[in-house]
Design the sequence.
């Protein structure tokens, strides 16, 4: 979607006295070249689809010359170059923005994290480690962390004869959202959904992006009946939540499958398989419902 009618003025932040010029970089945390670091030592660099760009993102949603990063020696800013689909910082469309440490820059399907400060290498290696456990788009746990945690929680549940349940859910007709509103809107929906649910789970629960538009929640110490009650709560929560992208409301619902550890379901593969089967039962029953 075009950003031409969405003028965003430059926001001047409180800047630290220390120049960021020699100690600043952007790191790809989502998209192609995951984990790649680009040092911002030059006065400027161009991001875009063209092979002549300093940072090339070869995707149709990215303009040939999409955005420019300018390093004045005292501050680093990003400037949109009249791109078709806009430049986003922390989910907000911008024309020009002074970057602060930790800002997330989204150009097309790629997300960069801006790092600056006294020890860039340390920050970079911390970010790379974080990428092994966290999904770059939604900022919740990724599939790898989910699988490791489920294995650990299952072993504990069997050893101490405790309850353990698993919720698997995905967005109904997510392809239609992408086709109708665009992939940037689809990304927004995934991020907002994760943010809403993250605030509603217990500290001991694990919310993860399982893949694409499918998510999972590990529920330690929760039996089948209570897991189904919780599943219904989050289904209603998502149904009531307002998803608004560029002033357009997007209707969002989820279908949910629930499984619980039992004598017949005592392996991680079985726990996932049963939850997934019930998820597809929910979809076959008309979507926007739970099955357990």
Sequence:
């Amino acid at each position: 979607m075009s950003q031409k009618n969405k003028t965003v003025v430059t926001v001047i932040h409180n800047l630290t006295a220390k120049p960021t010029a020699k100690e600043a970089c952007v790191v790809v945390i989502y998209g192609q070249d995951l984990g790649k670091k680009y040092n911002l030592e030059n006065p400027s660099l161009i991001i875009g689809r063209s092979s002549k760009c300093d940072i090339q993102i070869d995707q149709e949603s990215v303009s040939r010359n999409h955005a420019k990063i300018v390093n004045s020696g005292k501050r680093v800013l990003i400037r949109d170059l009249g791109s078709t689909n806009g430049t986003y910082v922390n989910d907000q469309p911008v024309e020009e923005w002074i970057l602060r440490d930790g800002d997330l820059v989204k150009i097309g399907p790629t997300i960069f994290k801006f790092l600056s400060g006294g020890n860039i290498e340390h920050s970079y290696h911390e970010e790379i480690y974080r990428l092994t456990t966290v999904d770059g788009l939604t900022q919740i746990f990724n599939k790898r962390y989910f699988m490791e945690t489920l294995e650990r929680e299952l072993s504990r549940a069997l050893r101490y004869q405790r309850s353990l349940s698993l919720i698997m859910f995905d967005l109904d007709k997510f392809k239609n959202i992408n086709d109708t509103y665009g992939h940037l809107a689809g990304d927004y929906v995934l991020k907002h959904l994760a943010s809403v649910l993250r605030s509603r789970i217990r500290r001991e629960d694990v919310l993860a992006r399982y893949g694409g538009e499918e998510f999972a929640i590990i529920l330690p110490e929760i039996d089948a009946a209570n897991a189904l009650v919780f599943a219904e709560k989050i289904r209603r929560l998502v149904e009531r939540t307002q998803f608004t992208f560029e002033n357009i409301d997007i209707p969002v619902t989820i279908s949910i499958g629930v499984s619980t550890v039992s004598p017949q379901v005592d392996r991680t593969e079985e726990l996932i398989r049963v939850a997934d089967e019930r998820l597809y039962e929910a979809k076959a029953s008309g979507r926007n419902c739970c099955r357990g």
